[in-house]
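Batch 3, record 17
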Amino acid sequence: MSSMPRRAFLKAGGALVIGFNVTGFSFAQEAPGSLNRPPVAGPPDQKLIDTWIAIHADNTATVFVGFVELGQGASTALLQIAADELDLDMSQVSSVRLDTHLTPNQGATVSSASIDRGGPQIRAAAAEARQALLIMASQRLGAPVEQLRVAKGIVSVAGAATRSTTYGDLLGDRRFNVPFTGSAPQKPVGQYTIVGTSVPRRDLPDKVRGTYTYVQDVRLPGMLHGRVVRPRGQGSYADGAKVVAVDAASIADIPGARVVRQRDFVGIVATNEWDAVRAARQLKVTWNLPASLSGDADLFDRMRASKTTDTVISERGDVAASLAGAAHTVRATYRAPYQAHAPFGPSCAVVDATADPARVLCSSQSVYGTRDKIAAVLGVPAARVRVEYYEGAGCFGRSCYDDAAQAAAIMSKEVGRPVRMQFMRADEHGWDNYGPPHLADVRAGVDAAGKIVGYEYQGWQHVWSTIETSQQLALGTPAAESADGTSRNLNKVTLGSMYDIPNLRLVNHRVPGVDGYLKASNLRSPLDLSFAFASEQTIDELARMAGIDPVEFRRRNVVDPRWLGVLDAVTRAANWTPRTAAPGAVRSRDANTATGRGVALGTHLVSYGAAVADIRVNRKTGEIVATHLYGALDAGLAVNPAFVENQISGQLIQAASRMLKEEVRFTGTGVTSLDWNSYPILRFAEHPDVTTIVVQRPDERSTGAGEEILAAAAAAIANAFFDATGKRLRQFPLTPTRVMAALRA
Amino acid sequence: MTITVNEKPRTVRSAPDTPLLYVLTDELQVQGPRFGCGLSQCGSCSVLVNGVETRSCVTPVSRVEGKSVTTLEGLPAFYAGKEKLAQTPALHPLQQAVIDEQALQCGYCYNGMIVKGVELLSKTPHPTDTQIRAAMDGHLCRCGTYPRMMKAIQRAARAMSGGVK
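Prediction for the assembled complex:
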């Protein structure tokens, strides 16, 4: 492909049609001025400033960001960092669509890394770009760098404002050609004017008008619509799904549709989307579906009985001896289900496998990761695949986006046309890489003074599936799992690290996920809800046994002023009063209703979260309503406090949903949670009021905020149930059936 | 077949049993309504049909023949018509309130939320919290934006009655 128009897209109605030959940048508003660089198979050289920053003749800058917008505001917040360091206004900076032929590889947008890891990179690059610009200005203006001042990209000599130039004049659309060493001096925090302020989200106006281009809106000329045909609900990951027979005649009455088949991969393509949808529904495929799952009822027995790989994650002191001498001890088993990512809009991708490089327009947490997965199914080197990012519905971890992109690629290659493939609801719910289940045995003890003396946590879970279903079906690639690692083993940050515990032992029992389990991967704050559900109920029980208010108990035992800070902030906001009365004592006027209040601490890998939950329990129906959730988060210097508030708010709601509602149900042969009725989530009428508190720490480095309050909020709900009823629920979700069983016990 | 979309008559070629959603997005290239479940469970495909919130994913296009379909794109004009404004504003007051409250995260559910919210405000200009919760209950959100959407509806109600924003 040569001499392409740099931008060749046209708007028809409201849908975006992207020309076949576009290799440049699809959106004028995202790339002011010329970027002065051809698309080249990336990642571009991270050691060059030009990889990160471009300065345009109109005195604006493009910042090449390697993190994706997922609705969390990262695309705006990272620009705040760059603008501050470059001495530009927010109106003078913009970013471009993530693209493997253009943007740097900053790693995947996971683990709350955008600000935590990406922020310092962007800041360092901006500082070094500014330094290079000042050296040029020094020569142009005949004044030493130390005497130069910058505002809005205008460089002037101190005390002689008429002697000035601009970034645009100095470099306008030419390259820096200077190395990125990371050594340029950066502004002290006290001089930030944009970081730490709540500038509005950049993506919102287009989203509100309906002009934002989600991946589901992307169309290519000449493309076909594709749908996959799979059993309704996945079976065991290792077994996959095997085709016995495909009856192509069963869709003969839909002339526009045709079957695409590669081994056990079956799909439909059609010119008309509705034809593809109904043909996929109507096509008769006979599957071999072995009954090799446990079914959800027997899941935890299977996990406990499985041949695990055991690792001691942390050990200090002597837990057994400490418990023998403790004033009070507790011991319990906890269970947590598979939960689904269930993005609100099913995964979608548009792929043109006939282009070179193959074009992949998709949603992803890592365009470079997706590129490798597409290369695998197309059988080409990664450099011959170009992945461009379009936002989809919030994915909350590795949902089906790569699976969908692979499916589109397989179909496009097979039919020699671009294919837009979108999952149906049952595909998304039924073929997810679910958040894995968890089983925990916990024991702990406290001394007479209310000091935690010993704590042991043994946890069982399987790790993450690495081979996507489309590849498994089309190539026969065997199921495989990721190596152990952070977020896949017990999380020692969530499990007890906030408390000063002299004797502690964490044992990880890795369950083989290829031995009769579902596919799994990282679901927002991976496994932390499960860990906190068990751990923070254990702490709560110790407090109750010691006769100490749960907040006061935590105050006595926390190790770090930052944990204390969030605990104080949230309990102040909630107007916490000591809970020393017998649990279940507080009743509302209605005898069938019990109200309760709980507190908990938690995080993911960084940041500090604390939550208070107010709940109402209907003793007759077993229904729990979360009435008010409070969350306080310390994520260091919050780059944009309003975004952090929005993240806290969303996490409080999602925590209520996951704690009260969500569970993937399955039989021996497959998943039966295939839509919003069979996999209910928290509804509008059920949502709690929320109070969000950002504990701003200007002198601490900025850390993640996208998943650090879920665990605390979830555990606070569980503790509130005990406060309301005097009973413990040790398996979630806290469904009416489980509540009634606990109340009867 | 001719259907009226955002006050313009549009001739469509799709088969009569085609769900309205596919006609809007594929044939008429309207971007507001979006596929979410295809089962009338989530609300992301909602449009107004003669002012009534309707799930376009399960509504055959033949059923809206001769009726007036309003999508997200047509909400400002729908509002101007109802309020007999001389000029169509750039945004419906509820859209402005959603920006003012920074209510969205991924924004995929927003189409249904805004269409339902506009329907609510057109019938009940001063909804109570209980009325908002009841009206919006058929619209799911995965990011957890319910509290902010609630505030946006309250704010829009105030703005539409000429109160303090």
